Amino acid sequence: MSSHQEGTVAHVHRDDIGAKMGMWLFLFTEVLLFGGMFLVYAFYRFQHQDQFRVAAMELNTGIGTLNTVILLTSSLTVALAIAAIQKGNRFLSVLMLNITLVFAVMFMVNKYFEWSAKISHGLFPGSKEMLDLPNGQILFYGLYYVMTGLHALHVIIGVVILSFMLIQLMKKKITQDNHVKLENAGLYWHLVDLIWIFLFPLFYLIQ
Amino acid sequence: MANGNTVAENFYHQSTNKHKGILSWLLTVDHKRIGLMYLISVLTFFVVGIIIGLLMRLELIAPGKQLMEAQTYNSLFTLHGVIMIFLFIIPGLPAVFGNFFLPIQIGARDVAFPRLNLLSWYVYVVGAILALVSLFLPGGPIDTGWTFYVPYSVRSTTNVSLAIFAAFILGFSSILTGINFVTTTHRLRAPGMSFFKMPLFVWATYATAWIQIIATPVVGITILLVMIERAFGVGIFDPALGGDPILFQHLFWIYSHPAVYIMILPAMGVVSEIIPTFSRRTIFGYRAIAMSSLAIAFVGYLVWAHHMFTSGMSDTARWIFSLLTFIVALPSGVKVFNWVATMYKGSIDPKPPFLWVMNFIFLFSIGGLTGLVLGSLATDIHVHDTYFVVAHFHYVMFGGTGTIFFAALHYWFPKMFGRMYNDKLARIAVALYFIGFNMLYFPKFILGYMGMPRRYYDYLPQFEPLQRISTVGSWILAGTIFLIIGYLFHALVKGKKATSNPWGGVTLEWHIPSPPPLENFKEIPTVTHEPYDFSQLKEMKNE
Description:
By secondary structure, chain A is mainly α. Chain A has helices at 8-11, 16-47, 49-57, 61-86, 90-120, 128-132, 135-170, 180-205.
């Protein structure tokens, strides 16, 4: 493809620091996206402190805690997957990435049971039971569904990204000297984890 | 270095992929081709926006109904705003000229993430298509105004969700471009090009890229919330369920005010390129101009609530935001004084690009000064939501960024296409543009002051003379723009071949052939000169 002889350097252009910089900038935009939501949460919590407390009692702290443990552990396993490929141990890296994916699926299964329990009690936006509640509680549940829903969407995107990484890892496209993609995917997964660490106390623990 | 006369060695003939014809463009990762693809799409939507504007002006030529129903008019002003802002002005300078010239001006072969760059164009096209589809689906085109204020945007039965989803998608495109440019500026500068040797267009685009990264996610989440509100009724913006519509206004303007600087900063960067080139003099106050771009990017983030002086905020909040609004005028003033000082005792050569910049300084100054009228609490209450705001906004955005879009096109046209346009026609266009522009928008200041509200379909008989002048002005302005597009197209085919440096510029793009070869530089240059050091012109002639 090269049209001139000396221009070969540009074609193998690779800049790991640049790639990571771009990823960090992208994560920054994600933080701002959720930042907008946290701002809305803070605003309404300030307006309806008592009703937020009442509504928070309804959430299942057990499932929330379990999911926190799952997600934190999955952050560890993805970090181990990166460490393993850095040491050249592809088998361990693949294993750790698989475990991460299992954790992610477990998180979503728990979320499914948690949400469907709420919905079967009639607690979902627009339901008759919901509209009978005071405004503060409606807002709490509204924010609960929007914020944890947006987070769950990020978990799903994370699963897709990590699966791609798994394929690339098995096809030996990600190697000991060229693993910046896996690192960036790991950064994304840590962000998903980090956001949950803020969501968990705001919805489940402050009662 | 090549002397610009070799024909086949340019990016039009060299592809980054193995395809031929249209596919070699649609799958390209060359920043110059992507810039041109943006140029074509942006110009297309610009023309659509102009036609909608012409229709609105035609409706307003006399009181009462002329050619459309009031509901159609509501949709037209919404579409005019959405198209002009999200599809023309925001991507206009950064995505077209930033893509084409930022890598060249820092001595790089391409941007940091070429494939991401192509993706951002596709995301832009998808957003644009969604916006167009929303017009024709049952429900009718969106009628909320481009600000999408709740609660009306939640209640309106038109296709609000799809249209604002399009804006959400377009935001993604903008973010991707921003991430790309920041990384490119940090990682790919040629040896010797320290931050303070970068051309000022690079500085401006760099500051813009930061605003794109920082501000766009906030409007993204806000738009998403409106869509969720429409779909599920979670109550966040619905007063009936305890939500607060004013909160929407805050979140919306936290993005949309900085977005104004996304639009104007690259334009200011272009001005800082053109004035030294045609004054043959190094820019006055280089660091002050570079830093004022960053200052605008930063302070511009803190003035959003001046859009909401009548929305019901505390007095303390209002005077603080009013004060901050006045402060953001300072860095803009720094720029204008430095530009004028650059021309002082320079050897001015009033070629068309320079004349466009003169046009800009005049129109933008009117826009800027009337901004102070709107930034002061007492006067704002009087002219809020009137034609005065419309006139101010168009003087700043169209008179500012729009004018510079044409200035940049005239300045870089020979470099981008390797052809020269007709100098005489270009001069006539500048004059006609000036006349048409002021006829179209200046009467709106007076109308607004007299009390004509914005976005109204009908008006009182005493406003008729000024409305009529404005409509005639719209014909002159639109005619001029079509004239410009016409002679530029003619130049593409029949224009004289351009040399590698027709204006005598010294930034790096003038060191390479017109049009540039693929990957721009045979060897990455080593930068030793200051960016606007015109003593290099002699060496460049010998190259």
